[in-house]
């Protein structure tokens, strides 16, 4: 039941390095999140609408479908990348 | 079987499943009651989260709203899904690592302040009650539209069911009920969508049909919809009359609001650890995306079908026999008003006014090229419910959709009730007023407050008849969550210098400003030309969120730094598996400790 398991404590340098890697990953993925939703779906929509995917204007498609697919992918990429990062520091299991 | 029989069949079948689960999953401790014992599998939790969070608004209203707003409806699609990326990356794993029961619990402990805890309780109650009114209205609409039960009775039936499984099973009961509700919902949503997609485009997947040609024609479905709409004087489907800033603000309010909604956040406390919380957010979005990528397809098909069947149809009045008259009109080469239209007309959701007196229904947009006035004003909320009838699908599909709509409304209502009851029993009673309370007493109080919350929600639903469209009411809850709760949770994790003064000011400023803005513009006579930066009330939470962040940071910087214990705690929760109890924050309550009969040590005054 206990959550507070005894894990090897990181040294403060390791903890800093871990946290800055986690932050870099987070910021990178959020940049993609911003690019597909606000970027492709709103700000550059009119530009992208000159192209089309199937029968839908591309910017419109991103706003109504594409962004959602990318969001799902982003979260799983985050899960895998965080697992790898945790393993490297002997955390989380 | 007759359609009403099918509807009762699906509704009763799903309701008995919910009750069965409630009995099977009785909660034995507060740990079970609040967080389902912390042992829900991430995939199962993802499914429960999807049901918890997809409300009557997602199921019943969203496709209808998109059908009318076209591109403008994208704010709901991107906003309500994009929030999960924020939740997964910024909040869920860290909050799980923090390891408490509720959102006010996090706020009270992280900001070492009973006052901050109470303010968070107020925010959580505000958000949840705003939201629950919309759910109850959805239950009423589904019951009254299909089962011939008066609106009020519909709400009461729904409340009795939720009462049973929420008070008995707590979070445990709610979790497993929500899993079943998700299955009911997604099946009910996708089955008619697949049928309609096949009819219009010939593709099985609505997501593919959405970007394909109309069956047997060399024109894409969306292009055809665009021409049809502009011919009638509407905007193109793929365009919007909203300003870009407004689109950005509304999308943002929904994204950050999703991330700040207490009933969504508490779902991540039910899994085992931070890693499971991340996966769980991913699974939640997978299950949500199944419905959310179908919705825009449903919306465009529905709009096309609606115009096709209603515009130019000969109206049949109620004083003549519908069947005979319709047959006569068809024989004469005309198009009679469809039978489903006559059905829904009784509910008042499909008013027709024969302005030019020609007996034909003209459905026109604001820039009607033939100068004819619009005579039909459909209510957006009925589209998903009426869609199977519009597409002439078999009776059992309609029954299924009703059961799905009820599942959507009830699952969200139950999730909200858990927030309300835990805010009262755990945060107000146990952690603030009566710290000596035992676990057993707290469990009783939790059940009692869940029961009281059910009654309050029911009453609210009865009064919600006069509220605007379900989806819009719900949008306000998101604005409130975005401006009041998201900033302090986010800063609480990512900025260890954030202190209690900053937190209190941030929460209160966000809550008060957003609430005031919405009330002023929706009920207080404000006009759109007075909008702040042209942002409508639906999107204002996004603007005030930045204000709340700035106030939180500013106030923290000019007041004393938080104690070292808190700084250590914040560093702990950033690194998975290293969470240890820290002085002030965990005084009297450590994560996952069983308190049994001994009760808690009193929390000393700060």
Helix content of chain A: over 70%
Q: How large is the share of residues in beta strands of chain B?
A: under 5%
Helix content of chain B: 55-70%
Q: What ranges of chain B have pLDDT less than 50 throughout 5 or more consecutive residues?
A: 588-606
Q: Note poorly predicted spans of chain A.
A: 1-6
One letter per element, helices H and strands E, the order of chain A comes to: HHEEH
Tell me about the largest β-sheet of chain A.
2 strands, antiparallel
Pfam families (chain B): SSF (PF00474)
Main location (chain B): membrane
GO molecular function, one term (chain B): transmembrane transporter activity
Subcellular location (chain B): Membrane
Sum this structure up briefly.
The complex is a heterodimer of chains A (93) and B (606). Chain A is mostly helical and 93 residues long.
List the defining traits of the structure above.
heterodimer, A: 93 residues, mainly alpha, two-stranded antiparallel sheet, 3 helices, disordered N terminus, B: 606 residues, Sodium/glucose cotransporter, 68% helix, 0% strand, disordered C terminus
């Amino acid at each position: 039941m206990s959550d507070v398991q005894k894990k090897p404590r990181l040294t403060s340098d390791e903890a800093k390095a871990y946290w800055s890697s986690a932050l870099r990953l987070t910021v990178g993925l959020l940049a993609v999140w911003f690019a597909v939703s606000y970027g492709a779906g709103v700000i550059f929509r009119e530009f992208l609408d000159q192209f089309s995917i199937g029968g839908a204007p591309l910017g419109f498609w991103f706003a109504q479908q594409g962004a959602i697919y990318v969001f799902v992918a982003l979260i799983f990429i985050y899960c895998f990348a965080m697992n790898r990062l945790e393993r490297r520091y002997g955390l989380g299991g | 079987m007759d359609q009403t029989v099918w509807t009762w069949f699906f509704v009763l079948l799903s309701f008995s499943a919910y009750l069965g689960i409630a009995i099977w999953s009785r909660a034995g401790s507060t740990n079970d009651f609040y967080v389902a014992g912390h042992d829900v599998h991430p995939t199962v939790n993802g499914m429960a989260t999807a049901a918890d969070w997809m409300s009557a608004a997602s199921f019943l209203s969203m496709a209808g709203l998109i059908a009318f707003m076209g591109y403008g409806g994208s704010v709901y699609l991107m906003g309500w899904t994009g929030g999960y990326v924020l939740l997964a990356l910024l909040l869920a794993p860290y909050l799980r690592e923090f390891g408490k029961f509720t959102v006010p619990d996090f706020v009270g402990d992280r900001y070492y302040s009973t006052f901050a805890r109470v303010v968070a309780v107020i925010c959580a109650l505000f958000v949840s009650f705003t939201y629950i009114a919309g759910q109850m209205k959805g239950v009423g609409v589904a019951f009254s539209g299909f089962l011939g039960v008066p609106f009020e009775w519909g709400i009461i039936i729904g409340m009795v069911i939720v009462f049973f499984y929420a008070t008995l099973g707590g979070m445990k009961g709610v979790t497993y009920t929500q899993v079943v509700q998700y299955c009911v919902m997604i099946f009910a949503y996708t089955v008619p969508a697949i049928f309609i997609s096949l009819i219009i485009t010939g593709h099985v997947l609505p997501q593919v049909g959405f970007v394909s040609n109309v069956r047997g024609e060399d024109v894409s479905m969306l292009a055809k919809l665009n021409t049809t709409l502009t011919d009638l004087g509407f905007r193109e489907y793929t365009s919007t009359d909203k300003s870009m800033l407004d689109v950005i603000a509304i999308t943002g309010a929904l994204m950050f609001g999703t991330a700040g909604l207490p009933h969504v956040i508490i779902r991540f406390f039910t899994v085992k650890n931070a890693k499971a919380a991340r996966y769980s957010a991913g699974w939640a979005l997978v299950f949500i995306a199944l419905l959310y990528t179908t919705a825009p397809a449903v919306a465009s098909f529905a709009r096309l079908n609606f115009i096709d069947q209603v515009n130019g149809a000969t109206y049949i009045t109620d004083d003549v026999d519908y069947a005979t008259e319709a047959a006569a009109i068809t024989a004469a080469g005309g198009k009679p008003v469809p039978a489903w239209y006559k059905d829904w007309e009784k509910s008042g959701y499909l008013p027709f006014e024969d302005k030019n007196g020609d007996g034909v229904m003209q459905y026109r947009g604001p820039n009607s090229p033939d100068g004819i006035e619009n005579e039909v004003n459909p209510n957006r909320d009925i589209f998903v419910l009426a869609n199977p009838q519009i597409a002439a699908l078999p009776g059992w599909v309609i029954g299924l959709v009703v059961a799905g709509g009820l599942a959507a409304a009830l699952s969200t209502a139950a999730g909200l009730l858990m927030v309300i009851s835990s805010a009262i029993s755990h945060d107000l009673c146990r952690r603030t007023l009566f710290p000596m309370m035992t676990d057993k007493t707290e469990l009783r109080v939790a059940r009692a407050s869940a029961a009281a919350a059910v009654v309050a929600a029911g009453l609210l639903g009865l009064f919600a008849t006069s509220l605007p469209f379900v989806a819009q009411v719900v949008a306000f809850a998101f604005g409130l969550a975005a401006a009041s709760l998201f900033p302090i949770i986010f800063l609480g994790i990512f900025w260890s210098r954030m202190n209690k003064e900053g937190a209190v000011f941030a929460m209160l400023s966000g809550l008060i400003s957003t609430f005031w803005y919405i009330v002023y513009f929706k009920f207080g006579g404000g006009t759109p030309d007075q909008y702040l930066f042209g942002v409508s009330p639906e999107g204002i939470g996004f603007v005030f969120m930045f204000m709340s962040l700035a106030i939180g940071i500013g106030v923290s910087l000019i007041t004393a730094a938080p104690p070292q214990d808190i700084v250590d705690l914040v560093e702990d929760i950033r690194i998975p598996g290293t969470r240890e109890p820290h002085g002030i924050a965990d005084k009297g309550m450590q994560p996952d400790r069983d308190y049994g009969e001994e009760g808690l040590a009193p929390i000393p005054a700060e």
